[in-house]
# Entry
Amino acid sequence: MTLEGHRVLITGGGTGVGADMALAFAAAGAEVICSGRRAGPLEAVAAQSPAIRAIPADVTDEASVAALFEAAGPVDIVVANAGAAESAPFAKTSLERWNRMLAVNLTGAFLTLRAGLAQMDGWGRLIAVASTAGLKGYEYVAPYAAAKHGVVGMIRSVALEVARREITANALCPGFLDTEMTSQSIANIVSKTGMSEAEARAALTKHNPQGRLIRPAEVSAAALWLCGPGSEGINGQAVAIAGGEV
# Structure
């Protein structure tokens, strides 16, 4: 499959799934705009391919998102991947933490996809990287799960609005990923529970019937599939990439 002639914008592109996607789309022939809050990681990704351009932006800020799309130029594939996770018991979750999780995980996806759709003329793909937390609940991450459920609901609504155009909107819902974010979660479990790192990792991998963490490349492959021939009828879906979970 080739994506030559297409320009893709990926938020949260400096690390983890976003960085892997940027390189995968570039390898498939697309021009890639890699965005995130920190310039350093973005530039490190862009240095790996002449097809990748780094543009820092904050997806929680409407003006920053508008400036991002202005600098990027017309794009026909938009991947709202930026996200963050924090954990705390629900009864001890502050309003500040709640608002922070919704801002980056839900409002950020809204601002990104809204700006992307507004400038699409003809064929297009809107992809949100959600989570299995958008399909079920997990303890200690109620704000994150609420935000990801919101992303899935938003995608299903947008999909109906674009159904008669050459545009599709879908969500990818990976389980626990082998990324920096999961490493941070493991470290948090170790510090708060006294578990060993191996025990903490096992506590996360148990959710996957395959007994492992999901590789970023698996999410990238699914995103490429949604942009390839034969994907036209895939619209409004929340695709779990979780080894059989959910």
Remarks:
- The mean pLDDT is 94.
- Residues 169 and 198 are 38 Å apart (CA to CA).
- Residues 95-118 form the longest helix (24 residues).
- The domain at 7-175+215-241 is CATH 3.40.50.720 (Rossmann fold).
